[in-house]
Records
---
Amino acid sequence: MISHYKRQWKLDQDGSLWIIAENSIEQVGCIHTCQGLEVDYIGVIIGPDLVVRDGQVVTSPEERDKYDKSIRGWKN
């Protein structure tokens, strides 16, 4: 299933406090900018690199963004 979900990445005018801004419900950001804060709503966007195969949740590193440094050297 391909989703056409779109949201702005963080609120530019609020810097690191984007998640507690009034309009942040319409924004998305990474886990690093929201950890330690309490919010009323939270969601997780799961990309194509996390899949279920034979009932097991596994990662598929080849589906990650080519600029993702967490898999540097994986293809070698």
---
Amino acid sequence: MKTSTQGSICRGSLCILAVCILLLVGCESKPLPVPIQRPAADGFCKLNDEMLQRYVVAINVLGESSSSGVATLIGHKVYIITNRHNLPVEPTLENIKFRNHLYQYSAATAVVTMGHDYADEGGLGPARDYAVLAVETPSIFAPLPLHPGRHQGSVVVPSYASRLYEVGRGVQWFTDDRFDRLDFSLAKGASGAPVISCRGEVVGLYTALIRPEDYNRTDFKGISTPIVVVVRDLTGN
């Protein structure tokens, strides 16, 4: 009787152990939660600088550069979008790290698509200075929706320029297909920062500042790559 009882206890212990192992395996293979994307709604420009900080992604190419980007939800996946010129000619995924405002890090897992360095385009044709990358840990980022067309009006631009946080506020407009104009500029190194409408939609990527001597001639201080170019290339429309 004693032996039988001990056998039952052992079998019970083994069952419990097996269940625990299954639970652990299940936890390890469970996909990371996808963050909820903020829906487009009025009032985004009224957010203070500290609140806007959560919507900019710091991008660090190890040993080369730091810049800005933005997370967006496409389908059920989170992607990071930045300027093409922020990355090396031949990007190495192991050297690309993303960081959120809480200093949590994630690796890049794939280069989904890339446009061209705007400087190499010489200002000809639509601005296609963008890169779209897949991210290993999507749950640490706060994605924003992409605006489907061109935008004119008030915008806010949170950025990490030279490792310092900065927010630009002003107006964006366009006069042709090449790029969008901004009536403000950010510090050098802010490339790739999201240009966001007052409804919280990404309408462009801050691409370059205009030199003061050129501003007097052109009447604008910065340019951004229209996000509609990225949308069209991703969707094929």
